[in-house]
Design brief:
hydrolase, about 260 residues, alpha/beta, single chain, binds 2-acetamido-2-deoxy-beta-D-glucopyranose, Alkaline Phosphatase, subunit A, ARSB, metal-binding, 7 helices, 7-stranded mixed β-sheet
């Protein structure tokens, strides 16, 4: 597996309306739904409890049981192209994002393609993002808070330490010496290693909006992201439609479990 690939992305789209009072109809077609859009990164088809009982995913199981399961779909094979399509609805050949975005190149989601967040903002939505972007950061204008999101907590690149939120160079070194990788994988690994010789791959990649954020240092990213998402929902005015995009980091490499799950 190369360091940034998304073998399969599972998307859970939850739509719900919050009735304003008991006198209102339960489902109002005049009020836009709140949307919570969760992406599980690198989660394979057989990595969920309803396909494989050895995998314990109680929360996903219950969402799937009360929702709609799409069991066969076509997706882009890797991370950046998938996210590109989720955000813009465009195939990657339009945006030149066919490949995983390498941290050392100035690639980005072109501004001429509006994101779903920009479109929903035009419809009056409050828009928030929590998690992994991987659609460009070489200029602030390509980052989430400039691409339609009112707020952002998370990281710009493809992978990082789940606890300390910095790029993990030793992992790439291990992969390059022990794993057979594609020529593209080699290009990626070599560019990481090249950056490391300049001391550039171990840096922190974690921000709240555009501010470098250290308050979640030591907090497992799944928990940091879930806490922020809960805070957004709790503080949200239910009269305003909410779009909350949560592309979690787990279970993407580096494979690090949370301490609370270690007994599993
Ligand atoms: C990020 O932006 C949101 C929305 O404007 C704001 O509520 C939040 O306080 C900001 N966070 C920081 C750390 O500035």
């Amino acid at each position: 597996m190369d360091v940034c690939s998304v073998a399969q992305v599972i998307v859970v789209l939850v739509l719900y309306t919050l009735p304003l009072s008991t006198a209102q109809p339960r489902l109002s077609i005049t009020q836009p739904p709140h949307i919570v859009f969760i992406v599980a990164d690198d989660l394979g088809w057989n990595d969920v409890g309803w396909h494989n009982p050895e995998v314990l995913t109680p929360n996903l199981n219950s969402l799937a049981a009360s929702g709609i399961k799409l069991e066969a779909s076509y997706v882009q094979p890797t991370c950046t192209p998938s996210r590109n399509s989720l955000m813009t609805g465009m195939f990657p050949y339009h945006t030149e994002l066919q490949q995983v975005m390498d941290p050392s190149t100035p690639t980005f989601l072109p501004l001429k393609y509006p994101t779903i967040a920009e479109k929903l903002k035009q419809l009056g939505y409050s828009t928030h993002m929590v998690g992994k972007w991987h659609l460009g950061y070489c200029n602030e204008k390509y980052t989430p808070v400039r691409r339609g999101f009112d707020s952002f907590l998370g990281f710009y690149m493809g992978s990082q330490c789940h606890y300390f939120h910095h790029k993990t160079a030793p992992l790439e070194e291990k992969i390059s010496s022990s794993t057979k990788v594609s020529s593209f994988g080699h290009v990626l690994i070599n560019s990481f290693l090249g950056l490391r010789t300049q001391g550039l791959t171990q840096g922190r990649d974690f921000r709240f909006n555009t501010t470098v954020w250290t308050k979640t240092e030591g907090v497992y990213s799944t928990h940091a992201f879930a806490n922020r998402a809960i805070e957004i929902i709790k503080r949200h005015d239910p009269d305003v439609p909410l779009f909350l995009y949560i592309p979690f980091q787990a279970p993407h490499s580096p494979l690090q479990v949370s301490v609370s799950n270690t007994p599993l």
